[in-house]
Amino acid sequence: MFKLILSLALVFGTVYSQAGTTAPEDEVQAKSQDYSVNTLYALLVAEMAGQRQLFDLALGNYLLEAHRTQDPGVAGRATQIAQYIGADQAALDAATLWVKLDAANPLAQQALYLELVKAARFSESALHLQTALDLDPKLNLSFIAIQGEGMSEGSRELWLQTLTPLLPRYQKNFELLFNVANLHKQQKNNQVALDLVDQLLEENEEFYPAWTLKARLHATQGDVKTALSATLEALELFPDDKAFTILKARLLIKQKKVAKARDVFQSLVNLHPRDSHILLPLALTQLELQDLDAAQASLEKLLALGAMTDEAHYYLGRIAQVKEEPEKSLEHYLAMRGGREYLAAQSGVVQVYLKMGQTDKALLHIQKQREQDIQNSQAYFLMEVELLNRTGQYEASLAVLNDALKAYNNNTDLRYSRAMVAEKLGDIVQLEEDLAFIIDKNPKNATALNALGYTLADRTKRLDEALKLIQQARTISPTDPAIMDSLGWVYFRLGRMQESLELLKKAYVDFPDAEVAAHLGEVLWAMGLNKEAKEIWAQGIKKQPNSPILLETLSRLEIKL
């Protein structure tokens, strides 16, 4: 019995310490010893369960004993456990009891405030926040911004409506001002957030986080110049601060002052030579400036540090490609084990093999990756299709797409790819089926609408249907030159020559592609403007001498340039 009571005395010491209650140890022990053996045993079991991460058991025991004993320490412990495991209803129950038993405890008031916010009981919550701040003006309020990140826009707005009236009462509470400003930023009320930050900095210009928020708010509004100005002000207050110096460099990049950003990163690397989060952006700015040797040296330092190795291998692989060192490029790409650039690296492997004339190895690599990297299997299907199409293997490409669509039948990217391959094979039925499927899924898919409309105009006599589809596409994307080209072509097929000519001329100015040149030249030729037609075709041939559509047009019309 003595050992049990002694254990629980220690347990209750932990409870009061974590709950924030200031009861002296002898009072805690005396109070513990007044409990029944059943209560002591239940709490001991709860603590042991918590140590074994059996949190449901721990919470159940603490919550039951909190109501049974009416002890604020037990209620506080129950609240903490419930919040830790995300048991919101239990946390609200425990926090409500905790405040009832220990209303003068700011942590109890804070806990109940948070749980009422989670329950969207905002008006009630504000009363408890006010009480908590009156009890402890230095209360940590970072949970306000953290909680706001997971809220819906509507709930966050209601919460702000209850917080705003508290600001005049606590205008010297910089934590409150800062966190409410953060909520406004999350709500995209950027100007309101800026006003609060400026108010805060007028009162306390050395409130470090406010300068970061100010700079980011200006950047969010597209005012990079003012964001940089705020960052430079912050650096006067906090000289050589690493975070603000990095922010300065990133804002310089947004201003397209890459060389200056590179210099800032270089100065940081001189101060922090083992910081991978500075070495990598330094390397990227060096790459942007085409300083390949410097970038390579920076990336090799990353490898030597064993930090951000996937990123280092990826960019070293790209540098080796540019330097036409295929074996070295493959070595780096194949050394990657993951990361954001992993898929791009696999595409790089394929490009290198193709450049080396090793198409079979490229195909084998894609197929092997598709088996190993399951989560990106769709991307590998598309990669294989692109390779087969590039080498004119359309039947094989169609077979791959058919296999892919057995597993991903609703994937619109795969459907679109199959439609384009079907067009190459002259299978208009398959093309129409796939494009219609995409349009049914997304009636505002301008690309699919245009592709179907153009094919119908070019390959069938269903010109009115084609016109309707292309007009729909243009309504969605009115400045797309590819859609203007299609509309100009269907007008030509309908005999509406002047309208066709105007559209195709505009499309060609915006996008002087060989296909547009073929269409514009044919309309000019049909209108008897032979000299102008030949000039347009000659321009197209000069840019894309192997353009199939342009060569077909010239052959069909028996034109020699």
Reconstruct the topology from this structure.
Elements: H1 2-19, H2 25-33, H3 37-51, H4 55-69, H5 72-85, H6 88-101, H7 106-118, H8 122-135, H9 143-149, H10 153-163, H11 174-186, H12 190-203, H13 208-220, H14 224-237, H15 242-254, H16 258-271, H17 276-288, H18 292-305, H19 309-322, H20 326-335, H21 342-355, H22 359-372, H23 377-390, H24 394-407, H25 412-424, H26 428-441, H27 446-459, H28 463-476, H29 481-493, H30 497-510, H31 514-526, H32 530-543, H33 548-556
Helix pairs in contact: 1-2, 1-3, 1-5, 3-4, 4-5, 5-6, 6-7, 7-8, 8-10, 9-11, 10-11, 11-12, 12-13, 13-14, 14-15, 15-16, 16-17, 17-18, 18-19, 19-20, 19-21, 20-21, 21-22, 22-23, 23-24, 23-25, 24-25, 25-26, 26-27, 27-28, 27-29, 28-29, 29-30, 29-31, 30-31, 31-32, 31-33
Q: How large is the count of helical segments? A: 33
**What is the β-strand count?**
0
Largest sheet: none
Residue share in β-strands:
under 5%
CATH-defined fold name of the domain at 1-139: Serine Threonine Protein Phosphatase 5, Tetratricopeptide repeat
The CATH architecture category of the domain at 1-139 equals: Alpha Horseshoe
The shape, in one word, is: elongated
Kindly report the name of the CATH homologous superfamily of the domain at 1-139. Answer: Tetratricopeptide repeat domain
Low-confidence stretches: 1-33
The N- and C-terminal alpha carbons lie at a distance of 107 Å
Please bin the fraction of helical residues: over 70%
Name of the level-1 CATH class of the domain at 1-139:
Mainly Alpha
Which value, in Å, is the CA radius of gyration? 34 Å
Q: Could you report the average pLDDT, rounded to the nearest whole number? A: 91
Structural class, judged by helices and strands? mainly alpha
